[in-house]
Write a structure and sequence with these properties.
The chain is mainly beta. It contains nine helices and 35 strands. The chain has a 22-stranded antiparallel beta barrel. Strands 1-6-7-4-5 form a five-stranded mixed sheet.
Length: 819
Amino acid sequence: MISSRSLMLAGTMALGWMGPALAQADSASTSSASAIDAGDDNAQIVVTGTRVAGRSKLDTASPVDVLSGASLRQQGTTELGAALASIAPSIDFPRSAAVDGTDAIRPATLRGLSPDQTLVLINGVRAHTSALLNINGSVGRGAAAVDLNTVPTVALDTIEVLRDGASAQYGSDAIAGVVNLRLRQARSGGGASVTYGFYDTDVDAARSSRHVTGEHSVNASAWQGIGFGEDGYITISGEYQRRLPTNRSDLDPRITPSVVDSRFGDPDVKQYSGWANFGSSLTDHWKLYGWLGYQYRDSTSAAFPRLASAVAIPAANGSPAATVAELYPDYANGFLPLINTHSKDLNSAIGVKGDLGEWSVDANVSYGRNRIDFRTLNSANYSLGASSPRDFYDGALIYDQLVGGVDITRKFDLFQSLNVAFGVEARREGFKIDAGQPESYGVGAFAQNGFTASPGAQGFTGFSPANEVSRHREAVSAYLDLEAQVTDKLLLGLAGRGEHYSDFGTTGTGKFSARYDFSPHFALRGTASTGFRAPALQQQYFTSIAQQILSNGQPPVQTGTFPSTSAVGTALGGKPLQPERSTNLSVGSVIRFGGLDVTIDAYRIHIRNELGLSENISASFSPQIAALLGPQNVSAARFFINGLASTAKGIDAVAHYRLKSASAGTFDFTLAGNVNQIDVTRVPTNTAANLAPAPALFARTRIISLESGTPGEKVTGTLDWSSGVVGATARVTYYGNVIQPATLAANDLDTGKKAIADLELRYQPRKGPQIALGVSNLLDTYPKVVPAALSNNGVTPFPYYSPWGFNGRYLYVRAGVNW
């Protein structure tokens, strides 16, 4: 076990040992084109984690990574989440499968914490979360997080990753840290590119082996900077993406002869994105700015297959058996339901900033909205018999967010300098569920009068009128942020924030930060803060209720996810949800010698009153539970509850060195790693009265997922080389073992400790035609194979917790032109 004290001391001890060696480093230029840098000195200036203008990422009291847009685009993947995970070791982006809507909208994690415990900003303004609530067995279960993939990489200039608690500075969600997406700002220039790629991989599952070539993807993107007036600009970016589905399923032993009758892998995706970022001076002292982004994503994944034997409806009372087999007369092995989502995502903001005397003022209003429409295709509602549709509209989830804020800063000549910043923010959020067509959830004749056919669309049951909800809330906040350069060597910071929510009341957070520069080459830094995350509206009000047939002659009963304050949730001990709270501590060091810079930061994050989605509590557990659920006509239910506590401890380290050679070109070396350990220290028991025994609210699968669902160690080594118009990137990423938990410990699945190698070669002049050839997962590395007995009849032959996925080697070519 890693002790808190040893983690806090590790950074300073390691750097003290490294100091003499680093003193021998070459004194080359500190500018960088590496993955963890933005490519020039100006791009190292950060606006995240500090409100002091002009501070660089190596001069801050908190650790901040600056990731260049070029490093995101010079990869095989065209997904922002996956591109981030490949170059930022503290970020993971699992490629889940067979988990319904999460297949299409996958969440990212920072330092192994829940996806909704990382705040995402766009140009410093709070981004809106997805309407989707992850309720199945994926990493991030129970979270409603920002969908990073709604912002195409072509629209980005840099990304800043603040690896530190920042609720006192930015408000709710910033427990693990902050990801700030900074859009391009260009008055001229432009470019266009097309990337084509395909898989060339050997799939070795438990029951079969095969070679796969194909499953191609195409990505076309373009951007253009337009200048007007003295300093006006509008930068327009667009992207089209088409990805065919991947399939790594194994043989189904229930069929003779055995065949692959399922689809396990990435979904089929058709996606369009358009962004515009603009700004212009209004007067000598005031500037107008804003942005508008829209994305439409059509994504189709697969549910578990339905065998032909499952299509037949049992007879009742001697009546002839009904069947829906005629819906699929050519499907001798049954049918494969498909889950289709149409996500429409809007991001927009407008603001003004300028000077009022010696005060700098920034005022803005932003609005974001996400609507996800669900469809179940190639399916059937067994209870409707042969009259069942094959395709169903299942309803929609809708989330929107309106934010207005004012930030005011001024620098005073107190100490060497004192930067004072304060501001206010108001936010209104809304969440809505719309019902689907009646056939998607309805109970037909063959689920009544003695028949026991399952009602609702197979694969994904639609939202019924009982699930419909429309809820809103408001929040207002105010903060004060002080940062003082006390002496040449000592920097101190103090921040405080108060927030009031209309649904749960008032909360406050604070942060203290310090940095001491012993010399131009060596500094110590540290922070202590408290944080919080407000329960999402999705967690408070999401409802998904299906009808279930328990026995012949009995009416259907309900089962599913209920709000904690509903009659069902309250009967089982549910209470109004409260915010999660955290205590964050970090200490680290910064070393700079010529072209070498190294940062090492140790951290401890203790989260209490953490939210979790309970297990299904079944009426069959005990007569007492049956008595509580019986009056509600419910057979099983789950709901959100506070009370979990966990502690994350770890070390982040980033080392970067740049070497220039007149004959061989420029080499950028980056070695970045994260060691992280999460321990769940408290698990709440059922709060309903007089339950003995009480059902477990959180099974071991939930606990193991929190503790071991992301890598305990991740190290990325990157070499960027350029000489004139040619260049190359070689990257190796090592992942520690990840556990995909099962009900029994003996059935847990390990991904194994693996290293993934990527390579790209490119011809890339600043202007004119460009081309790049690359391969992701060069060595065709897969996670450990799932034993045949645990693979769900071949549906899940590899662990879907794998942080790098399970698709194998990917080859690509990118061709474009810059002007």
